[in-house]
From TrEMBL:
Species, as recorded: Aromatoleum toluolicum
GO molecular function: hydrolase activity
Protein known as: Alpha/beta fold hydrolase
Residues of the AB hydrolase-1 domain: 32-270
Keyword NAD: no
This protein's record includes keyword ATP-binding: no
Keywords per UniProt: Hydrolase
Gene3D superfamilies: alpha/beta hydrolase
Length: 283
């Protein structure tokens, strides 16, 4: 079986200090820029199985978001604190001299990709919404969101292998959680500063006022960039019906449904994910 270390051979890990944020990135390739955003609680290795294949045609940059992984942990701002993620990415792009890029976002990462597409279209080439979260389409399953909150906060309070495994199996209930991935998450979540910042993240994410920051269909209709809605049959937050509802309002969009996958299709079905993404970017 392949390992994260083997999968990432040929990539580079870099820390970019822009003066505002210190962002850890895994990077590979050259050509058009493609940013790959992980989900809530995640880290750049979310795309370990995809980096080198995607880098055959692109300059791929997978960052740790602020409050996550090994990136900086700034104070949370009042109001729509999620905008701080977008600010981090725009700041990083300026630091790297990247005027426009394509963006893939999984779960939380998709929320930030939508924000870029809606509010910063001048920085966007193409968008890939990978089992995205951050929409109010009336299809979210409250019981699954409660399970996500419970498993996340429990694992942060006590980052044991058992609780980290349970959290990762929420992402991939069909299988795919490896011992190495558990080891990595245990290491990252055992850092006191990371535990504190991620606890703050989840408390704010599930607070009632966060409902006001979700995008509705009218908001998504403002996205003009070519958009791939890469979804799965078994996504635990919102099923394929969410992708098709978004497709109805995002004019220049296409849908691809990955079978036998849940919330991490780039990890669960990497070959299919990479083929679909590369074909979309090449069009």
């Amino acid at each position: 079986m392949s390992t994260i270390h083997i999968d990432l051979l040929g990539t580079e890990t870099r820390f970019h200090d822009t003066g505002k944020h210190r962002t850890r990135c895994i990077e590979a390739g050259s050509g058009p820029a493609l940013f790959a955003f992980h989900g809530g609680g995640g880290h750049a290795e979310t795309y370990a199985r995809n980096m080198t294949r995607l880098a055959t045609r692109n300059r791929v940059i997978a960052p740790d978001f602020i409050w996550h992984g090994m990136s900086s942990k700034p104070a949370f701002q009042s109001g729509n604190w999620l905008k701080q993620f977008t600010g981090q990415i725009l700041d990083l792009m300026d630091h790297l001299g990247i005027e426009k890029a394509s963006f893939e976002g999984e779960s939380l990462g998709g929320w930030i990709v939508m924000d870029l597409g809606i509010h910063h279209p001048d920085r966007v080439e193409k968008l890939i919404l990978n089992t995205a979260w951050g929409m109010n389409l009336g299809s979210d399953k409250a019981e699954d969101l409660s399970a996500l909150r419970e498993t996340s906060l429990n694992a942060l309070r006590n980052p044991s292998r058992e609780l980290i495994r349970k959290r990762l199996e929420w992402l991939m209930p069909l299988g795919g959680v490896t011992e190495e991935l558990i080891d990595l998450r245990v290491k990252l979540w055992s850092d006191a500063a990371t535990r504190e910042s991620l606890t703050g993240y989840y408390e704010r994410l599930f607070a009632p006022e966060c409902e006001h920051f979700l995008y509705k269909l009218d908001d998504l209709a403002r996205i003009k960039a070519p958009t791939l809605l890469l979804w799965t049959e078994k996504n635990p937050i919102a099923g394929p019906e969410a992708a098709f509802a978004m497709h109805e309002v995002i004019q220049n969009s296409v849908v691809h449904i990955v079978k036998d996958a849940a919330h991490w299709p780039q990890w669960e079905r990497p070959e299919e994910h990479d083929r679909v993404v590369l074909d979309f970017l090449a069009k």
